[in-house]
Amino acid sequence: MTTxxxxxxxxxxxxxxxLIILLSLKWAKIKETEREQAELxxxxxxxxxxxxxxxxxxxxxxxxxxTSSAVRQKKKEASPPFxxxxxxxxxxxxxxRVELSTTSLKEEASLKSLVSEALKLQQQGKTxxxxxxxxxxxxxxxxxxxxFHQK
Length: 151
Prior knowledge:
Layout: H1 2-78, H2 91-102, H3 105-123, H4 128-135, H5 139-148
């Protein structure tokens, strides 16, 4: 009878040892998954920070451009005398005129060459980061440029 009890005890100890090993393996997998998730969160935070900084820089450039064009517009308006018959344009028309005056043929040509150069580098297998470095542009700008001009 004692032999039977010893045998049951060894079997139960073996099963419990097997379950403990399984639990420790599962726990190690969970810890690895947590570590990977923390790394992904750090990457996403870095990417969002970079995106927001580029967005802020583009907004600052836009504000500078708009203020400089507004100053030029005021200088143009101040130099010729106003006529009483002149009708004030709505804000939408003024914005359209500013946009038209800021895009010249040279800028359009440089934009087309930039697009073609970016597409050519992408076809060569370059990453977006490498293309941005080669063209001296922001990563987000190149990414959007390629998205808009994909066939």
